Amino acid sequence: MIDTQDKIPTSKVERAMKLVGAGAKIGGNYLKYYAKKTINGDTTKEELHANNANDIYQSLSQLKGSALKVAQMLSMDKNLLPRAYTDKFAMSQYSAPPMSGPLVVRTFQKSVGKSPFEVFDQFNTQCSAAASIGQVHQAKKDGKTLAVKVQYPGIADSIQSDLKMVKPVANAMFGLPEKEMQKYFQEVEEKLLEETNYTLELQRSQEIANASETVPDVFFPRYYPEYSSNKVLVMDWLEGDHLKEFLDKKPSQAVKNRVAQALWDFYNHQLHTELAIHADPHPGNFLLQEDGRVGVIDFGCVKVVPEDFYYHYFPLLVPEIRENQAVVDQLLSHIEIIFPQDSPAVKEELQVAFLDMTALLSRPFESKEFHFTHEFIDEIYAKGEEIYQIPEVKRPTQPRGSKHALYVNRTYFGIYSMMADLNASIETKSNEWSGKLIEYWANRV
C-alpha cells in the first residue's frame, strides 16, 4: 500500500515545524549512535547516516517544493554526502510520497476549473510518479494515452520562505559565508519559481522540442495547451525506463552507447546552438528505450545562457584558447573568478586551479571518442576538493564565479555522471563549437 498525503503543509509555521521535527529526530539518532558506540567500539556511522537520511527525506518529501528539490540536487553530488544520503535523496527524482486521490482532484479542479473526470475520458487518481514540484497521472482522451502533471498546492508561495530555512543548512554544509551564497540562492530561487509556472514550461517544451528535431535518437511528447493551465500540464504518455531500471535489464554496451550519444548530442545542440539547456539532467527526466533512443520530459528547469556569458565561459574549455594568457586574463576577470584587487599570489593560485579544473572537464572534447568512467568522475570531484582547500575559495573575501555558471556546471556534472553510469564510449569531439570560439577570440586580441 502506497502512503499518500491528504494535505501538504503550506504555511511558514507548518513547514518550519516539519524541519524542526526532523532536527529533533536527527538529535535522537546521534544519542542512539553514541550509546551503541559506548557498548560496542566497532559500531560504525553507517547506521547513523541511514537513519538520518531516512528522517530528513521523510520530512522533506512531505514538504515537497524547494525543500525536496534541494535533496534532489544533493543526490546528484555523489561525493558531497555519504552514500546513505545520496541514495535516499535520489528517490526525490521520481519517487516521493504522492498526494492522495481526493487532493489531486481538488487541486486539478481549482486550477483548470473542471474535474479531471470532466476533461478526460479516463483519469487514474493513483499517480505514476511523484517528484519535488508535482506528480504525474495517466489519463485517456479520444483514444490517446496522456500524462497529466499536477502541481502540489502552495508550492510556488512557499519557495522564498523554504529557501530562507534551507540557507543556513547550505551555508554550513558548503562552508560559505552568507554573501558568497546570496547570488547563487537568487539564481536557484528564480529557477524554482520558473518550475512552478507550467504555462512557461509548456512554451519552452514546445520550443526546445521543435529546435531539436534534427538531433538523432531523441524524441519528445506532444503537449496539449487546451487541457493545461499554470498548475496542470498535459502531454502524450511516453513509455520507457529511468536509468536504474534500464541498467537493471542488462542492455548491451552498444545500446548503452547509443543512449549516451543521444544525450550528448542533445545537450551539445542545446548549449552551443540554442544557448538554452534542459538544466535538470537527473535520471527521472529521461525515458530510455530498449533500442537506445531517449525520450526527454520535464522542461520546467531551463537555463537560458546569456550570449555574453557563453563567449567568456566556454572558451576556457578550448586548449588553444587556454594557451593565450591575454585572453585567459580577460575571461577569468569577466566570469568573476579573479578581481583587480587580488594580490599577484592569489591571482596565480586561482588561475592555476581554475585552468586545471577546466582542462580536466574539457578532456572529452579533445579527442574524437571518449570513454566515460566513474574513475573520471572521481578525478573531477577530487580536483574540486583540492580547489576547495585554497583559502580564498574556502573562505572568500568576496563572491567568486558568475551565477550563470551554477546551472551550467550542474548540467555538465549530471550528464557526465549519467555517461559514467552507462560506461559509455561515444564521439565527443568539439570541432564545430570550439572552432567558432577560437575564431571569435582571434579577432579580439
How would you characterize this protein structure?
This protein folds into three domains: 120 residues, no CATH class; 160 residues, Transferase(Phosphotransferase), domain 1 (Orthogonal Bundle), CATH 1.10.510; 138 residues, no CATH class. Strands 1, 2, 3, 4 and 6 form a five-stranded antiparallel β-sheet that branches. It is globular. It has 445 residues and is α+β, with helices and mostly antiparallel strands. It starts with 11 loop residues before the first helix and ends with a helix. The chain has 19 helices and twelve strands.
Features:
Transferase(Phosphotransferase), domain 1; 19 helices; three-stranded mixed β-sheet; 3 domains; 445 residues; alpha+beta; 56% helix
Quick rundown:
This protein has 445 residues and is an alpha+beta fold. It is 56% helix and 10% strand.
Per-chain topology:
Elements: H1 12-39, H2 46-63, H3 65-76, H4 83-89, H5 101-112, H6 116-119, E1 122-123, E2 129-130, E3 134-141, E4 144-151, H7 155-174, H8 178-195, H9 198-211, E5 218-219, E6 232-236, H10 243-248, H11 253-274, E7 276-278, E8 286-288, E9 294-296, E10 302-304, H12 307-313, H13 319-322, H14 325-334, H15 344-361, E11 369-371, H16 374-388, H17 391-394, H18 405-421, E12 425-427, H19 431-442
Parallel strand pairs: 5-9
Antiparallel strand pairs: 1-3, 2-3, 3-4, 4-6, 7-10, 8-9, 11-12
Helix pairs in contact: 1-2, 1-7, 2-3, 2-4, 3-4, 3-7, 7-8, 15-16
**Name of the CATH superfamily of the largest domain:** Transferase(Phosphotransferase) domain 1
* Average pLDDT reading: 80
Helicity level: 55-70%
CATH topology of the largest domain: Transferase(Phosphotransferase), domain 1
Total E-strand runs: 12
**Overall SS class:** alpha+beta
Estimate the strand proportion.
5-15%
Oligomer: single chain
- How does the major sheet shape up? 5 strands, antiparallel
Termini separation: 66 Å
Coarse shape: globular
Number of domains: 3
